[in-house]
Specification:
This protein is an alpha+beta fold. The chain is about 35% helix and about 15% strand. The chain has helices at about 5-15, 30-40, 55-65, 80-105, 150-155; strands spanning about 20, 70-75, 110-115, 170-179.
């Protein structure tokens, strides 16, 4: 049995239905993504699982280079209210960590999830990893790992557009690295 046949039942058990397998070499990693984090994201320097608490862009490239398999998960969320979006994000991210653990327990020790956006597991995040209240659960987002989510998603023919306001329906993407 191949990796896909072993892992897909676990993915479906966790009720993830919109996902695709991809070669990690197809994950686009870019400096501009880190620059957008550093200059424009309110989580930069204030969240334990966000830059600068993540590897350098070159370190991210090396990380992805250590994998042969990855999944991308697509989610749609129309929550306009910030608090409701954060609650959705926290639920989704907890589910991703549970999936990661189940894949790990199925014999894939390198399983590692990348969240849809900032962690949001706690009401208020701390700026340093050493002070994180959920260190076993916290994971970086795809953009926190310098993934060009727009380019990667579009290369797989997923819908993704720039949001023009908080009421815009959003397409979110998470990743699970597996080997």
């Amino acid at each position: 049995m191949g990796i896909q046949e072993e892992i897909e039942p676990i993915v479906r058990h966790h009720a993830f239905s919109d996902y695709r397998w991809l070669d990690p070499a197809a994950i686009l990693v870019a400096e501009w993504v880190r620059m957008k984090c550093q200059f424009g994201c309110p989580h930069f320097g204030s969240a334990a699982a966000c830059p600068p608490n993540t590897p350098s862009v070159d370190g991210c490239r090396r990380f992805f280079g250590e994998y042969q398999h990855a999944l991308i998960f697509h989610f749609q969320n129309a929550e306009a209210e910030t608090k409701a979006r954060h609650a959705w994000s926290a639920r989704t991210n907890r589910s991703l960590v549970t999936l990661e653990r189940d894949v790990f327990l199925a014999g894939y020790p390198k399983a590692f999830a990348l969240f849809t956006d900032a962690c949001h597991l706690c009401e208020e995040c701390v700026p340093r990893k050493g002070e994180c209240r959920e260190p076993a659960l916290a994971r970086p987002s795809a953009t926190g790992m310098a993934i060009d989510v727009f380019g990667t998603a579009r290369s797989l023919r997923y819908p993704i557009e720039v949001l023009t306001g908080p009421a815009s329906p959003a397409n979110y993407f998470a990743f699970l690295m597996v080997d």
